[in-house]
Amino acid sequence: MKHDQVREHLRALIESGLQVGAPLPSERELCKQFGVSRMTVRQATDALVNEGLLERVQGRGTFVSRPHIDLQLRLSSFAEEMSKRGLSPSARYLQAEETEADPVVATALETSIGVPVYHFRRVRYGSGMPISIQEDWMPAKLAPGLLTEGMPASLYATLKQHGMPPQWGEDTITTKLITDEEAELLEQTPPQAGLYVTRRTFSGETAVLCSKTLYRHDRYSLWVPVSSPSPTMSGQQLPNTRRK
Q1: What does pTM read for this prediction?
Q2: CB 136 within 8 A of CB 209
Q3: What DSSP element (H or E) covers 185?
């Protein structure tokens, strides 16, 4: 189909070296070059916008976007994920305190309301680009005196050092509209939606961390490996899951 030709032409332009932020030829130019309607050109560019190769800026045009970072559901630290993608990880702490577990945190960590927990809130960066806003809660008894040692570079590494290595987790994934404050931290213009992941992390049967992470929707895509169920697992509970 004609929009396929236009789409593959634009894809080739991007792959041949168009820089991030470079504008595409105008719709009028593409219509004239391929002898097609504006609707056909728009179909082609829509497909590439959906793939994350292009982004539209209202009132300005269509531009080459930054590449998306695949968010794979696996139990690894942010630093490990960024390093695997050739990006330099860093973080800016917005909050770091020892506080008391409220009912929501106590339920997530399977502990009592009011017990001491560490609470962290950070902006996470990949090679200087804001990627996510992450909030974590950890039982203080797992790493006594943690805040007197300076800000931890990795909570997963901290847990490993204290004999409670993260081994498995439970994720819940939704989307949410970001607030004005979140938009400023992520260097976005509201209104925008974000990918919102809540996670409980366990070492053995002990809940060691609960987290809430808001990812930029225009920089992350979710990648989930799937497979057909094994006949031997039919009707059985999968390992490392809990009945509610």
Answers
A1: 0.63
A2: yes
A3: helix 180-185
